[in-house]
Write a structure and sequence with these properties.
By secondary structure, the chain is an alpha+beta fold. The protein has 18 helices and 16 strands. The structure holds zinc ion (2 copies). The site of one zinc ion (ZN) has 7 residues, from loops.
Length: 583
């Protein structure tokens, strides 16, 4: 069975059982407290708490997920940055018994797993939360003998919440027995044993609690089901492969690396796997409009891309190797996630730019690293120098140091980083301070114009355009934004026209105070580099522009005069810079 067939089989199975198929949500969650979507339930969180679900009370999905927590373990059999999660949900509809029945029916009838190979775990009770006797009895009634039911505490068998508060509950996992012979632990060798005899397949969460701000578990008013099954792992079991990397979700990428290097995958599995994993992760992040940068999501993207480039170098892969690998990734997923195909040009441009940019400094940086490391452990200042001058993410320096059994002074790095930032901030303030009333008004006008420009860019180029930086003097504005290639003259003209049209409409600039979450919900754009307070000000210009901003702004757009772009240039990989004036 191919992975495509399996994905479809899962969705259809639950659709036949009355579940609504819900498409995967974005990798960028609406909840601003988390960086990436890491589980299928995230988009349904509120329905567990009783908010009515627009999809009905039973849903099923295959969710795109991205995780960086175990990035160091990538290269073994089962860890990935990008992965997919299959899941079925009940919001106050069916509960434990049906959830267990569905799971067993799917695995045994649809996937042809022998019921003999299925072992389970249940929650034994801990911290005042009762053990799950009910699940124990249901499993036994369904023919799982009690020797195959293992009990664990909070750490293994209690799921969630994703953040500090939210829905959570005891869970029960189904594990698949890969080989019959137990390890030296004999009858104690069961699910979660480190010997590798078992592999976790499916987690059924009985979502009945809400963890509140005080850290207490309160009972929810309804009983919910939340399940999660790692898709890559299921595919590896169905396709009878020892590793997820040998399934049809990865192997075409691995084969391409082999083709470029002229060597066998078996000669260095770990490096092949890291490159394949990171490239896939990068393709999906870029398809969501994320671009390499030095903060937050952009930094994660830069980190995995640069790590892949470095491993590519270790395998002597020729320059530009990332492009053909990215095309393989797109080939594998284009029918399932059409955004990877529709954004193909952007994805390839961004990857190529980042490769070219890092290629220039990587060799020199590696030489520099050799010099520094010859003296012993890496100081914070040296790590910062590698970051600032040679574009080495801190984690890369750490990895290089680890290979030589050296350490890196992380605290020192952070201090150097902070100091550097303070110096550049002080420079900005100096430039602005004491410029007089007239000049302040000019700057206010230019700042207001950036709001119009931001929206105009998004309308002309695409919704993925994000503000990456901004600098105002009384004479001109400078606006950096994410976009993979040079703007055409036609695009610049369209942007100017749209801004000028909005100026002419003499629109009023309105101000509201909202909580940060309300502001985001209301569609206000936020600048991701910024840490926002609980309460924020949202400025809107008619229904054209809506942004979280501290101001100051003019009252009506006609005050701005005429907007003119004076220059368009690159401001780093995937970032463009516009300079403009008001005349
Ligand atoms: Zn064992
Ligand atoms: Zn503003």
């Amino acid at each position: 069975m191919t992975s495509k067939e399996l994905r479809k089989k899962f969705l259809n199975f639950f659709e036949k059982k009355g579940h609504k198929i819900v498409p995967s949500s974005s990798l960028i969650p609406t909840d601003p407290s988390v960086l990436f979507t890491t589980a299928g339930m995230q988009q349904f969180k509120n329905y567990f708490l009783g908010e009515p679900s627009p999809y009905g009370n039973k849903t099923v999905s295959c969710q795109k997920c991205f995780r960086t927590s175990d990035i160091d373990q990538i290269g073994n059999n089962t860890h990935h940055t990008f992965f997919e999660m299959l899941g079925n949900w009940s919001f106050g509809d069916y509960f434990k018994e049906e959830a267990i029945d569905f799971a067993l029916e799917f695995l045994i009838k649809e996937c042809n797993f022998s019921s003999e190979k299925l072992w389970v775990t249940i929650f034994k009770g801990e911290n005042g939360i009762l053990g799950d006797k009910e699940a124990f009895e249901i499993w036994q009634k369904r023919g799982i003998s009690k020797e195959k039911i293992f009990e664990f505490g909070l750490k293994e068998n209690f799921w969630g919440p994703v953040t500090k508060t939210g829905p959570c509950g005891p869970c029960s996992e189904i594990h698949y027995e890969r080989r019959e012979k137990p390890c030296e632990k004999k009858e104690k060798c069961g699910p979660n044993c480190e010997c590798g005899r078992f592999v976790e397949v499916w987690n059924l969460v009985f979502m009945t609690y809400n963890k509140n701000k005080r850290g207490e578990y309160e009972l929810l008013s309804q009983k919910n089901i939340d399940t999660g099954m790692g898709f890559e792992r299921l595919v590896s079991l169905i396709q009878k492969k020892d590793s997820n990397y040998e399934t049809d979700l990865f192997f075409p990428i691995i084969e391409e690396i082999s083709k470029i290097s002229g060597e066998f995958y078996e000669s260095n599995k770990k490096f092949y796997r890291i490159i394949a994993d990171h490239l896939k992760g990068a393709v999906f992040l870029i398809s969501e409009g994320i671009l390499p940068s030095n903060v937050e999501r952009g930094y994660i993207l830069r980190r995995i891309l640069r790590r892949a480039i470095r491993y590519g170098k270790l395998l002597n892969l020729s320059r530009g190797f990332l492009i053909s690998l990215a095309q393989k990734v797109i080939e594998i997923y284009k029918d399932i996630y059409p955004e990877v195909k529709s954004k193909e040009a952007d994805i390839l441009t961004v990857i190529q730019n980042e490769e070219e940019k890092f290629e220039k400094t990587l060799n020199q940086g590696l030489k520099q690293f050799e010099k520094i490391s010859a003296k012993g452990n890496i100081s914070g200042l040296d790590a910062f120098h590698l970051f600032d001058t040679y574009g080495f993410p801190l984690e890369l320096t750490e990895e290089l140091a680890k290979e030589k059994e050296l350490s890196v002074d992380i605290k020192g790095f952070e201090e150097a980083f902070k100091k550097h930032r303070e110096i550049s901030r002080a420079g900005v303030e100096k430039k602005f301070g004491g410029v007089g009333k007239e000049a302040t008004y000019e700057a206010t006008k230019l700042h207001t114009a950036t709001h119009l420009l931001h929206t105009a860019l998004r309308k002309v180029l695409g919704e993925y355009v994000k503000q990456m930086g901004c600098d105002i003097t009384p004479q001109r504005l400078r606006f950096d934004f994410s976009h993979p290639q040079k703007l055409t003259a036609e695009e610049i003209r369209k942007v100017e026209d749209l801004v000028n049209q909005k100026i002419k409409e003499d629109l009023e600039i309105k101000k509201e105070e909202l909580s940060y979450n309300e502001a985001l919900k209301s569609g206000a754009l936020a600048f991701f580099k910024e840490k926002y307070p609980e309460k924020v000000t949202v400025y809107s210009i008619n229904n054209f522009s809506r942004e979280i901003c501290a101001g100051p702004h003019v009252k009506k757009t006609l005050e701005l005069g005429r907007f003119k772009v004076t220059k368009e240039e690159s401001a780093g990989a995937g970032v463009r810079r516009i300079r403009a004036i008001l005349i």
